[in-house]
Amino acid sequence: MRAELATFGLAVQFLTRLPVPVGDSYSPQREAAAVRYYPLVGVMIGGLSAAVYWVAALVWPGVPSVILAVVAGLLVTGGLHEDGLADTFDGIGRTRPREQALAIMKDSRLGVYGVLALILVLALKLSALSQLDVETACVALVAAHGLSRLSAVLVIATSRYVGNTPGPAAHRVSAPGLLVAGGTGLIVVAGLGGWLAIGAALGAVAGLAIGHLFVLALVRPTLGGHTGDTLGAVQQVGEVGVYLGLAAWA
Fold first, then answer.
1. Mutual orientation of helices 198-223 and 80-92 as an angle, nearest 10°?
2. Helix segments in 159-227, DSSP class H
3. Residues in contact with 221: Cβ distance below 8 Å, sequence separation at least 6, in sequence order
4. Where residue 91 falls among pLDDT bands split at 50, 70, 90?
């Protein structure tokens, strides 16, 4: 149990800015194992965002509470995935060789494609969540953050790493780890169906799948695999897909 808690702590430490003491429990093997808990950490991030939304809606119903919920998620994660989204679209924005695209993705400067991607994704998040009532929006935040990180785990499991630096994205996902991550996703989908409706769960999964495949269709012709940045893009677009799927159902 202590070993699993340490592994979960590494997942929280990597995906968020929350102060999680892990001591000397780090190892490359444990870093690889922590991937299994990414969807669970996503559920936790979504829960924090939903709590902010719920409280804010008591005072500022509508768009202001949605904005505060999204900002809460940004503060918790430090914009980790948004940074990956921007870097990815800067790298693949024009047709270019893979090595050149990877070099652009590592550049700390932000280009026009990255800016446009960030604006569009944030606008879609805000507009889709604004279409939902408070209860549905809170459920959507939890589900989207959890399922979108499962989407990133599936990319790790089904694609080769093409980045130049070591990190969690470079590790393969073990079969038990994939079962844990997938089981977390199934619980989230079942919760959606039970709390809202079967149609809501189907809409969320459809939106997630479309977002997942959309990013892969853009990335793989140029890169031939994934990097940490492209996992961020998968997470962000998948999150938006869940919101849009639920908004379509609603």
1. 50
2. 175-195, 198-223
3. none
4. confident
Determine the Cα–Cα distance for residues 130 and 33; give it in Å rounded to an integer. 37
List phi, psi (to 5°) of 226.
-125, 160
Residue whose token pair is 């979504």: 46
Kindly list the distances between the CA atom of residue 242 and the CA atoms of 121, 148, 182, 192, 210, in Å, as whole numbers in the listed order: 12, 8, 16, 11, 9
Amino acid at 152: A
Better-scored residue on pLDDT, 62 or 51: 51
- Paired residues of 102 in beta bridges: none
Lowest-confidence range among 40-44, 194-198, 206-210? 194-198
Query: Residue range 1-29: average pLDDT?
Result: 81
DSSP 8-state secondary structure symbol assigned to residue 23: T
3-class state of residue 226 by DSSP: strand
d(CA 199, CA 161): 35
d(CA 198, CA 176): 28
Q: What are the structure tokens assigned to 47, written together?
A: 């829960």
And the tokens for 157? 């499991």
Q: How far apart are CA 170 and CA 152, in angstroms?
A: 12
- What is the residue whose two structure tokens read 């994939």? 178
From the list 105, 232, 226, 86, the residue with the least C-alpha distance to 156 is: 226
Q: Give the Cα-Cα-Cα angle 206, 180, 71 (nearest 5 degrees).
A: 60
What is the structure's pLDDT at 117?
95
Angle of helix 134-158 versus helix 112-130 axis, rounded to 10: 140
Angle at 191 between CA 52 and CA 243, to 5 degrees: 55
Total residues belonging to the chain:
250
Evaluate whether 245 touches 114 at the Cβ level (below 8 Å): no
DSSP 70: H
